[in-house]
Amino acid sequence: MEGLQVVWFKRDLRLADHQPLLQASRQGAVLPLVVVEPELWQQADASARQWAFCAESLEDLRQALALLGQPLVVRTGRVEAVLERARRQFGIAALWSHEETGNGWTYARDLRVAAWAQSQGIAWIECPQFGVVRRLKSRNGWARRWEGRMAEAISPAPAALTPLGSIEPGPIPSAQDLGLAADPCPGRQPGGRQAGLALLESFLAQRGARYHRELSSPGTAFASCSRLSPHLSWGTLSMREIVQRSRGRLAELKGLPAPQRGDWPRALRGFDERLHWHCHFIQKLESQPDLEFQELHPLTAGLRASEPERLAAWAEGRTGLPFVDACMRALIATGWINFRMRAMLMSVASYQLWLPWRDSGLVLARLFVDYEPGIHWSQCQMQSGTTGINTIRIYNPIKQGQDHDPQGLFLRQWLPELARVPVVHLHEPWTMPPSTQTSVGCVLGIDYPLPLVEPAAAAREAKQRIWARRQEPGFRELAATVLQTHGSRRSGGTRSRPAPKGGRRRSPTPKDEATRPLQLGLDLDLAYWIWLDPGRSSAQPGIEEAQRPGHGGGKTEDAPVAVAVEQGVVSLQQEGAAPLGEEVVAGHVGAPVAEHFSHVLEAHRGQFEGPKKPRTARPGEERSLDRRQGARLDRFVIGDALGGAAITGVAAQHLGQGAGGADAGAHQQEIRPGSAPLGKTGVEPQRPMQ
Length: 690
Prior knowledge:
It is a single chain. This protein is an alpha/beta fold. Helix content is about 40%, strand content about 10%. The protein has helices at about 20-25, 40, 50-70, 80-90, 105-120, 140-150, 195-205, 210-215, 220-225, 230-235, 240-255, 260, 265-285, 310-315, 320-335, 340-350, 355-365, 375-385, 395-405, 410-415, 425, 435-440, 455-470, 475-485, 510-515, 600-605; strands spanning about 5-10, 30-35, 75, 90-100, 125, 530, 565, 570-575, 630-635, 650-655. Strands 3-2-1-4-5 form a five-stranded parallel β-sheet, with helices on both faces. Strands 6-8-7 form a three-stranded antiparallel β-sheet, with no helix packed on it. A two-stranded antiparallel ribbon has the order 9-10. Helix 5 links the parallel strand 4 (about 90-100) and strand 5. Helix 13 packs across helix 18 (about 375-385).
């Protein structure tokens, strides 16, 4: 027998849109191989629920391959040892696989496999799996590459495979065989490509109609989100398949009358955005593998110390904070929770409970059936404030519950001990008088725990600690380096200043950074809009109570997305890039910036020296404004906060009357270069696909 074309299936458990399989089948007889690695499944981020989904997907893949003539071959052990046995028995002409951006263990394993292949003179051909780029030198042009990959034709499965009758398929091991601890998950999604295809079609035909409105609340997200994330993580569906099918559906809708289209176009555009961010975050881990273990910003290391008892209470849903506990128990039972609640769980662990991000991150990694290391660890660092380039987001878990589960339906479902508690006390059961506790059968400290912390006080202490660290010498300079490496470039092209003739682009000097207006070169479409609020003149940095003249105000920690307040400057981000919700910073400026403002930024691309004339809103622009009250930016230049420059020509026109009837524009003023340093603006979006 001539050497076999070995196709190593990893986290790509499908036949369609599988370039390694298709290309290998054109070269000769194919050995479709999966190696189950016990050592991988003993890592701290692995769990039995993940293996159950994987095993079901392997069975589905085996059946599909058998129809082509050669079933999936499964072996257990170290990959290089399995490949060496195959080489000696049958000969290996080439090794084929998709690129994988996995955890640190798989990265080290791939290095071992590469060394083995090189020592044996065997070519290992790796094909891109997502939009992630290997050996990426610059983020410039990344979005354009992603679009190019998503537009490529979906490769078909091979018509047939040569049977390899002499090779036993081998058993798919059980969780017990792999030494995995018991992990009950009664609501887990089933694995396999057929289950994934059914989900995709039901989402595009029915469930996704209110995606943009219902993805934030755990009470609605389980039905209205796509629920495709585990299928992307394990590769039963490809990213390209989902993108093309979703965009095809959007194209179909354009031919329908408006009443039939309904909100579908907006829903699918929002879904498409999250597909894009899926790869954006995985690229971070690809470019910097140690972010799984090390803080992106080195000066944030050592902020928190491990507290096993507090961690266990959070992990088991017994913090005494009802909405936190309900979300955690739902996650334990189903292996999934929507993104806003993931962010809240991590935020509460990191700030109110002051737990290290690695400790809480590992708990969540094991609970997520859709665990994707690149997304997961980037998000853990963002939500815990260790990237150094992201706005500090401290969730108020009480307000999150009141906003997203006002009647307590979700809360009562997952916390039956609170089933009889009146709604007025449900999100804060510690406010119940003892007589009420007795009458409803929920005595605090016995039937339901008292809160581990007083959430507002714990949040204030956390803010003081994190902002004190951010004021240390050298913090901003290091943050600028992190942003340059990991900041998004939404338009796909290079936006930085052209290189001088005859040489490389000049690195700006400290003086340049301190005085020049920002060249909108890093995050144009995602740039934060910055207001100077005369109502806040305090020079004390931090995220504090934000009571604004003419508006109801409230604490920024109460807002779905926090606002960075430094030297009296408030920074916030456009809604389409906001990590956590439909509305942005409601209550502080009372004029949140909503989605779809990229065209405004495009119109003002470049370096501005001063205020520009007011611009008339474009057709459809008001459509993007917040449904309650919004602002239109008439003229603006965004300052480079990391370098200490200032914005020029910022003005906002309030389009509706706020709580106090004040015009937002009356509270804006222009800032010239050389004025007080700005709050941080270069902040990442955090909305991967749900």
